[in-house]
Amino acid sequence: MEDPESEGATPPPGLSSLLPPREFLRSRKGQLLLAESVLSFIIFICYIASLAASFMMAPLLEFLLALFLFFAYASKLNEKFKGVHWPLADFLRCVTAAIIYFAISIAAVSKYSDGASKAAGVFGFAATIVFAVDFYITFNDLVSFLKQGSSDSPEGRRTEDEDSDSDSD
Description:
The protein has 6 helices and no strands. It is an all-alpha fold.
């Protein structure tokens, strides 16, 4: 019997079909979401091993949210589900994550003396920076989108106002 791979046939889709496309991994958004996921997972592991285990829920939730958005953007769910305002949801997630990571990192570094808590705090400060960069970029995208939308809306408002004025006469 011959090996099917030696015939030049493409291998059947398996786990490779779950991986995101390379162009998304090379994009700035893909790299930020991947960094957020990895840092959140590392922080989660550090909090589990530390005396500050009560802080482990925030990194777990941020890890799951970043992972969901990573695969949502990679599989272009944001283009399929137009009812969700994806940039706004991503902006709010990044802002809250940066604030929460900053607060629990300060608490972990100042209140607990074990090494795992200190490591979680240091990684938390790094995650704060990554989330802050992400929300800054997302904020700039949101502002440009809103400026583009607001330049279209006054024309639409004028025609609506003119229609309502003619209806009232």
